[in-house]
């Protein structure tokens, strides 16, 4: 069995075969494709009419290193999509863990993988699947999840990713009955995710992620974050255009207010969403939580007024941290979140500025030594010295793999537990927005979120 390297023509011929049978041939002239002197990334619009593609498009993806898998191979990799390998499920469909070795796919490094299967009756469809292949097939960055390959066989649509053993940030941050994510890990995750967004925004052909949220940030064993799920991503405005007009899609609590109201999408829309996730990292609260009092249900609206006041900030910091965080770092991170959550898009910082602000925060070490524990002194003890040791901040705290004082067990392939009441519903139209405003909601709420774990 040999490894089949992806070519754009081969992929499209199989993916669009059924569509070509259903649609009558177009009488419009074919779009001319001129040779590019330098690399030009392919957009979804380039694929709207597969018959217009030339060999130049397949050449432009020659370095993508995507591999084509058969459905039979993926069944072997996942042991027939067995329940024991089930990882989670979202709007796209179920995700299973698998393992690639030389026997199944010669030429590929032996490694664990996550296989995502498109549910034909789910919230997403072929267009989102193809968008994911287009973006992740061409974009490579340490903070973007790696797409290894895909399967496009008859009606079956599957994606094969690198396996991320710690799952999503949402799972790590909000799960119950487990050790809290330590402060240094939270800052490491915020910085890495910011770098991923900055890369997208500053690419030669900018990309707007459009669905930045905790469930789409995946973590490896060292808590290195990687952005996943590019099904809603859009190419940014070009030339003199200031925005991209599109359907309002995303997730309640994360989407920028101006985007919801107008459908005008910009890179600053992603910056707002980043501010919400940064706020989740600070407070330990979900972006939307209907179980809380009404005025506290929308995290950004409730917390933003308190972010610039040090005294009030202490009240909203995640109690599960038990005070084990840098006060200076928390104040700077809160001030940054305040800027990102501005209702005026032009007042929000760029993601490159966000990265510069977050970079030094991961090294702040003014963290208390831990909860005070009183022991009865003996005659040989000096209680004053003991108290002094426990009240002085530690100066030489080693930060290895994002840990300070709490141990975190590895969670390889654990099944996710869903708490539907706390999820943030997805936004799908401006009509839903108007209806929910009449019902007293801040943002539209029509569908379940698209959450998965790779």
Keywords:
Transferase(Phosphotransferase), domain 1; transferase; membrane; single chain; 2 domains; protein serine/threonine kinase activity; 11% strand; Phosphorylase Kinase, domain 1; plant defense; alpha+beta; Prot_kinase_dom
Word description of this protein:
- The protein is α+β, with helices and mostly antiparallel strands and 454 residues long.
- Helix content is 31%, strand content 11%.
- The protein has 15 helices and 14 strands.
- The protein has helices spanning 8-15, 17-22, 55-60, 71-77, 126-138, 169-174, 183-201, 257-262, 267-283, 299-303, 310-316, 327-340, 351-358, 383-391, 430-438, and strands spanning 67-68, 86-89, 94-100, 111-117, 147-153, 156-162, 207-208, 217-219, 225-227, 234-235, 244-245, 250-251, 264-265, 426-427.
- The strands form five sheets. Strands 1-5-6-4-3-2 form a six-stranded mixed beta sheet, with helices on both faces.
- Helix 7 (183-201) runs antiparallel to helix 9 (267-283).
- The two termini are 26 Å apart.
Task: Give me a quick take on this structure.
The protein is α+β, with helices and mostly antiparallel strands and 454 residues long.
The description of the largest β-sheet is:
6 strands, mixed
Number of helices: 15
Main sheet: strand order: 1-5-6-4-3-2
The name of the CATH superfamily of the largest domain reads Transferase(Phosphotransferase) domain 1
Kindly report the CATH topology of the largest domain: Transferase(Phosphotransferase), domain 1
* Strand residue percentage: 5-15%
Q: Care to count the β-strands?
A: 14
Could you say which overall geometry the principal axes of the C-alpha atoms support?
A: globular
Name the structural class: alpha+beta
Radius of gyration: 24 Å
Weakly predicted, low-confidence segments: 1-10, 18-39, 49-61, 383-391, 394-421, 428-451
The top-level CATH class of the largest domain is Mainly Alpha
* Oligomeric status: single chain
Distance between the termini: 26 Å
Number of domains: 2
Helix-residue proportion = 25-40%
Give the CATH architecture of the largest domain: Orthogonal Bundle
Pattern of helices and strands: HHHEHEEEHEEHHEEEEEEHEHHHHHHEH
InterPro entries: Kinase-like_dom_sf, Plant_Ser_Thr_Prot_Kinase, Prot_kinase_dom, Ser-Thr/Tyr_kinase_cat_dom, Ser/Thr_kinase_AS
Protein name: non-specific serine/threonine protein kinase
GO molecular function: ATP binding; protein serine/threonine kinase activity
Organism: Hevea brasiliensis (Para rubber tree)
């Amino acid at each position: 069995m040999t490894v089949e390297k992806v070519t754009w023509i081969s992929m499209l011929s199989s993916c669009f075969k059924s569509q070509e049978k259903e649609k009558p041939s177009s009488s419009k002239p074919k779009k001319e494709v001129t040779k590019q002197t330098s690399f030009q990334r392919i957009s979804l619009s380039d694929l709207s009419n597969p018959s217009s593609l030339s060999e130049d498009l397949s050449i432009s993806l020659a370095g993508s290193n995507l591999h084509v898998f058969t459905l039979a191979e993926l069944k072997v990799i996942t042991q027939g999509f067995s329940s024991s390998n089930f990882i989670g499920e979202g709007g796209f469909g179920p995700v299973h863990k698998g393992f690639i070795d030389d026997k199944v796919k010669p030429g590929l490094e032996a490694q664990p993988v996550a296989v995502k299967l498109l549910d034909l009756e789910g919230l997403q469809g072929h267009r989102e699947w193809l968008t994911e292949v287009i973006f992740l097939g061409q974009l490579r960055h340490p903070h973007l999840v790696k797409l290894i390959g895909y399967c496009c066989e008859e009606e079956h649509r599957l994606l094969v990713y690198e396996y991320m053993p710690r799952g999503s940030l949402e799972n790590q941050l909000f799960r119950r009955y487990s050790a809290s994510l330590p402060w240094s890990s939270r800052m490491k995750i915020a910085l890495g995710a910011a770098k991923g967004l900055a890369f997208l925004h500053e690419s030669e052909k900018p990309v707007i992620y459009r669905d930045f949220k905790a469930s789409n940030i995946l973590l490896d064993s060292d808590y290195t974050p990687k952005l996943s799920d590019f099904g809603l991503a859009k190419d940014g405005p070009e030339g003199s255009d200031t925005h991209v007009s599109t359907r309002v899609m995303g997730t309640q609590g994360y989407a920028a207010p101006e985007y919801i109201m107008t459908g005008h999408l910009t890179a600053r829309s992603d910056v707002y969403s980043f501010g919400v996730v940064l706020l989740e990292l600070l407070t330990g609260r979900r972006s939307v939580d209907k179980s809380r009092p009404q005025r506290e249900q929308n995290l950004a609206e409730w917390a933003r007024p308190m972010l610039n006041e040090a005294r009030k900030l202490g009240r909203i910091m995640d109690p599960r941290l038990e005070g084990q965080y840098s006060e200076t770092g928390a104040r700077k991170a809160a001030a940054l979140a305040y800027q990102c959550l501005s209702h005026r898009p032009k007042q929000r910082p760029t993601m490159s500025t966000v990265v510069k602000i977050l970079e030094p925060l991961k090294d702040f070490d003014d963290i208390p030594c831990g909860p005070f524990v009183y022991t009865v002194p003996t005659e040989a003890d000096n209680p004053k010295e003991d108290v002094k040791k426990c009240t002085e901040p530690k100066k030489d705290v080693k930060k290895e793999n994002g840990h300070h004082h709490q141990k975190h067990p590895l969670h390889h392939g654990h099944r996710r537990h869903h708490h539907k009441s706390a999820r943030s519903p997805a936004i799908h139209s401006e009509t839903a927005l108007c209806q929910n405003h009449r019902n007293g909601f801040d943002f539209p709420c029509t569908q379940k979120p698209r959450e998965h774990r790779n």
